[in-house]
Structures
1.
Amino acid sequence: MALNDALIYTLLALFFPIFPLSMVVSYLLQKYYRIRSLLFVLFPSTGLLLYSISNAPSFPKPFLWLGLLSSLLYALRSLYPGSLSRWSVYHFLSLISLLWLFLLRAEVNILLVASLSLPFLILSILDRFLIDRFGSSHLKFLTGLGWTSPRFSFLIALSLLLSAGMPMGTVFFYFLTSSFLSGFWELMVLSFLWFLWGWSTMRLLSSLLWGDRNGNLLYEDLDAKSFYFVLSLTLITGALGVIFLEVML
Amino acid sequence: MRLDEGKRLFIRSLVNVASEVIPYFWPMRNFIHHNPLYGLEHMPFREAVEKGEKLFHARGFLSRETYQSLFRKGEIGEEHLRSSLREFLKDRSLEGVELEELLFKLMTEGSDLKPYGNLYLSCRPEEVRRLSGRIPWDEDTLSEAERLADRLGRELTLYDGLDHLFGTEIGRTLDELVIKVCADFLDEGQAVWGMPLRNRGLYSSWRQIALRNRRFTLKGCRGIEEIVKECEDPESAVYLTLELLDIPEELWEDYITLELSKLHGWAGFIRWRSSAKDYYWQIKHPADLVDYLAIRLILGTALLRRERGRLLSEINYNSLREFILKNPEEAVMRYEFYTGRAPSHLYDRLADLIEEGRLEELREEYFTQKRKLYTLNTASYLLRLWELTGFEKKSLFSMDRERLSSLIELLKEFEKEEGYLWLRAHERSLIDEIAGKLKPVKVERRRPFAQALFCIDVRSERFRRHLEEIGEYETYGIAGFFGVPVSFIELGKGHETHLCPVLIKPKNVVLELRRELKREKESLREVLEEILHDLKYNILTPYITVEAIGLLFGFDMVGKTLFPLGYSRFREKLSEEKPPTKLMVDKPSREYALEVIGLLQRELIRRALRDRFGMGNLDEDTLEIIRKLALEEETSAKVEELRISEELLQVLRQEYRIEKGYMRIQMEKLAKIGFTLEEQVFFVERALKSIGLTDNFGKLVLVIGHGSRSENNPYESALDCGACGGDHGYINARVFTQMANNPKVRERLRNRGIDIPEDTVFIACEHNTTTDEVYIYDTQDVPTSHLPFLEKAVRDLELAGKRSAKERCAELEDSDCYEEERAFNLVKRNSVDWTQVRPEWGLSGNYAFIIGRRELTRGLNLQGKVFLHSYDWRIDRRGFLLEIILSGPLVVGEWINMEHYFSTVDNESYGSGSKVYHNVVGRFGVMSGNLSDLRTGLPTQTVLKGELPHHRPVRLITLVEAPLDIVEGAFQRIRKVRELVHNRWINLLVLDPERKDLLLFDRGEWVKLVSEVSV
């Protein structure tokens, strides 16, 4: 393998994070949470840029399995995330590392990258709201939002479901396309992956929205302006799913 | 291991005492309104509420925001709120601060204003920082840890401790396992495949299963077989596990109470069952709290064992206590982390460090941040409070540490007491409302067309008012069982139903018999229903059943959903009507009973001879001889004469129970049937005298029980008559009517001063409180001469029902209630609509109980929220009748009131949450979702309208119209009522007609509220 190729592979493995380089990305996303939304967009976009500059190189097959296994690893990790912040990081890594299936078997384009980043941008905004209002989005600390913050609950439920592959969202079509690109064993991994995504999302949602409210906290809901802003972003994410389908078809 | 008798008795009595705070839960078929803190009624209300908060993790008062909305609506008067506040501030003051004004503003305008853990995030940082520097901080980690260690065994079980310190979820897993055991064992026919060996009792049957059930091991119950093997009986299990857990013996009682309070719905149901010795399912599948506790403790111990070595080297009371006391800082940090009280911004780091076992690294920063956050939040709270009251902030900033500390302390005390202050103010406002309304009406004494006796239930008030408006009617309020406790055996049913308040155990059985002789045969409909049930609940058949006849259910669903009223009428036409029946009210003579038993025994002998010995029909005389031989009433000479084998007699005695001992039991049972003439006279006299109806009888006396009918509503019986054990009241009405129409009874009553004219006829009716229809019973017994009167009464009752329906319909917030006919149809639709979560408001809103003459309230619209018991003190100079009213109906009223109160103030804990999530379990209760504690209280839809209460959550305001000395005399003679009044579970008012004073019993003395009341 030429040094040049090795460098490209390494850089792409960092920007479309796969294990073990994904640990660096995970660390950065957790450490610099204030610019996390930017990083959610920046990593895959830089990866895409690099991919385009290097003229869509071909990758050895182990990368595909590394991608799948990384995805599996972070999906498993997201079952016990601790907080919404961490869940979004783990789920992001799980989702983006699946891009290697596209890198090896199809193509990656700006639409795909943008539509995968957008749900996480929304999650980041919502997570930020929680941190500003409550100081943390940790699940041992923050529960029972469903009773007290209906606007927030509606948006978080919608965006979490979209990011976990709810039909008609981009992630759903992304996942569907991935399955078309897979062989039997890869499909098995994908099925398990989807199950894990669904499971972790439901666990997170039920922890955040249900349960007793923390009596030590003053609960405040999203104001109308922020609500409509995030709602529009969520609708755009939904719409991107349809556009994505159009392009794929 | 088997304990000796002494220790077993010790454990049994310990469980008995420890379970006293767990409220009974009756099966939902007969929903009994009760005070969820019944076991704490010996304590003052305020203290009991506090204990309830600890035991059931429930609130005892509404939130400040909800009280504020009541205040804004004018339900709580400002003067009463201020007076409550002044009482609180009586021995408290703070120089330079107008405390009354400060707290009044906080109460009435301080929405969501508390020293929350994140309050500082939404305040002006500059001012907050400036003030926070002077906020005193006196918390000491060591004493915090000591407090935590002391709570173990008293307020926290061992697994609570572990869950709170190490983030395990043992409590949740344990609850899940216990719920499954209870649901399997206690099932009353819902499950097709029942738990095996249930006849052995809860613990024994579970023990057999636990010895070979891998599910418990899979769920993490390590070494469960070992413990189970060791404990042959439940007492030994309780003893052994408490010893294994090292719980000090002086804490056993508290620990058991804690365990029982975890799933108090299930525990309450088992507690009730074990006390209901005649309950069919208890006889069939016995269970008691010792069984339940043994299972819970064994499972809990096994779950704790799994964590041994992983979290701590040993897991028991002492080791956990030692861990807390040896590592106070770590323990406090862990506890606060897992209970959501740690500084918010440290959460992610805390999680990582706990996982990595490096919590020590954060220790210093943690406590610094904790202190900082406390001072910031307290400063934010005080600043907001000052902004709210409009006080100058300068006064706050100029306070020295000592004054600030006193202020903070006072605010903390106030926060604890605030709910009670609101409650007191609310009650005083309502007392004022009642006192202001009372305007006695003078009624002319002439013979009315009819009298109507209604239940004291609040829903009767509307109906009574509208019936009186029609004219020529006098109405009376009496407990809905009309003072006659009945054990009823319905036609075609084999079990007794107690139709009386649960406090009473009826001695007399009433049988329902057909009026016409008709041969029993199974109807086609019954056969079809049975086949359908089997097809639906069998393991395999549902698949083909759905394919084959699923469409039929589709029609049913469409009909029920889109055309509920018409479809229900159609279904009614399809169903067979119950044949006309009469009740066996008169007690049969001994000779009659002997004859009946003889008849039955001869029939049994005939069958035995045919089935066991292949002998054909013998004549009655021979059968009688054989019967007497079996009963050893005939000499053995006859045996030889008739060539009867000893074997036959043995079979008859042992298998067919034809023997002396069993016959005695049968005679005893038969002796319970019906009422003697003396009993009938006693019950009728007592009932009529207690309501003051002793003369001036009309042509008709309508005895109107009540009940409700609704579709798809597990809470239907909660809408029935509480005084009839949560059942319909028409049976008691029929029994009472039959007694009162008995000429012999009337004759004796005449000698006792109650002269019921011959042309007065008592008629039994039932008021359907959901539709406001009235059904008339036993019309066959009405003399022809009275049929025209009955016709008029039926018309009047219908009119009153329509008017009442119109009034109720508006309360149900239906916009189409502008005319009577429409409203009447709408409420009828509600009763048959299976999607309707609120067919009626029921007793919601009840807040007062008036015991007195109808003249006192006749002119008032009490909006169906007041219990009305008729009582005329002039015929009860010694207060004995009042005593009966206070000890029976009033106590039932208090239970109903408290059930509504607690379900309103904390619907999730004391109530049963929303009906939308309910699932019926075992045919006796409901759970939320597929696995939860039994939901014991009232659903959201009964007490709340949106998020605000529909029910007025106050303690029952009881007003008695009688001279004070009569009331005091009666009051002193009944311990229970004295306890309720002294401990402030009810508010007692006396309207003294002699002194013309309205008096309130307040903190041990009578306070005059109004003088010169017109009476």
2.
Amino acid sequence: MNNPSNATQKNQGGKYSLRLFVADGEPNSIKAKENLARICETHLKGRCDVEIIDVLVDFEAALKNNILITPTLLLVDPPPRITIFGNLGDTGKVMSALRLLYKGEV
Amino acid sequence: MKEQEISYQELQAELAEVKAVITALRRGEVDAIIGKDNVLVVRLIEVEAALRREKDFLQKLYNAIADAIITVKLPGRIIEQVNNSVERIFGYKPEEFLGKGGEIIYANREEYLRISEKIKDALEQGIDIVYSEHYFRKKNGDIFPGDITISFIKENNRPVRAIGVVRDITERKRDEEELQRYRGQLEELVEERTAELKAANEQLLHAEKLAILGGLAASIAHEFRSPVFGIQMVLQEIKEKASLKKSEQKLISLAINENHRMSKMLLNLKDLYRPSTDTSAPSDIHQIIEEALEIYRKKLQISKVKVVKNFAENMPKVPIVADHIKQVFLNFIINAEEEMSASGGFLTIQTRVLGEKVQISLRDTGHGIAKDKLNKIFEPFFTTKLSKGGTGLGLAVSYGIIKNHGGNILVESAPNAGSIFTVELPVTGAKEI
């Protein structure tokens, strides 16, 4: 069960819908939130809708989405669905996985 | 066919996902693992660091332990891990041990079979630790005693590894043996000292007894001398002036002789154990012996007693009353001659310098003295030569003279093995003249 109250940004144009599963307060989860916020601000400004789910609060949501570990970022929309594990510290790889990396852009 | 392709794609996707999870775990980027029923929050970085610290500590501890720790895989007993101390104890570098069979550490096949039997028994009885003492072999072939403690690691109730801790107990063994040896020596020493003390005590009692007897004898002699002298005078008068028959003359002569003998005995008794009034002077012991031999030379020749002299060089002058000491040697020579008069023999006279004393021993090849009589020969009136006219005073007088000189007389003898009389005299105060 998703927690809509954790959504931090409004989906503009519905182009990117992301769901970040974290264990709130834990170091990698904090880093993941920071890294995702930076990517959204830099590369998806106004184009992403991020939902942050704390598995310690909403365990059912994790099970429903087949989440094995935190932090895990889920690209819900546009399809296909993509899952990224870890603290999202490697911006290049994250953007590549999100299909945001264009030629000449790192 | 299409469904199989999709299934394959799904499989590929799942594999990729698992790989990605493993990568995140390896990189320490995971905070929590979501299980079926709960969430396990893991602080992997902290856990890893703690594990690393723990591992580092255990590794250092493992290698710092002075005993050799050898882990073998079961079954097969192939060595798969050792600590650094194996090099000090066995002479093998740790890597040389790996992959070898466990029996390499034992001195021989028997030792290995013995421990194998113990391990088998322990496992059968469900015992997890085996302790045993064995002989082990170093790389250079040296054998050493050691003890080994073997503990088993089990998986699913089956032993999969055995960890052996070997300690070199060479020093402990050596200490134990040394202690045992010291104990033995101590016991011997105590026994020896006890025997010495017993002998000294017996000697002291003997000396006291002789002194009392000597004093008594001297007192009696003193009181008897005048009457005996008077009797002598009267008998002499009767013999010279009275007209007697031949048979009566013979009886008087006999009485005179016996009285003379009694007088001589009393003279000897008088000096028994009394401090000499004569002054001592540094004297040549060898010369005194020669003079004593000269007095008895003819008698020795007749009895076919050969004299062998073995005199020490650098014999110092000894402070003695020469006439008294000569009397002692003469007594010994007389006794020796009488012992050997039947079929001849050898009288060996040896002198030695032993630090602050000189030792003179006279050895004969006579009949010897029975053990039960040895203790009594210095007692006054004890004689084995009663039939030959012995008075039993010769050795008693000799004993008194030597004691007066601060010396000692020792006797060794056994039936049919001859006798050795040894005189020891102190040289303290002797001056070269």
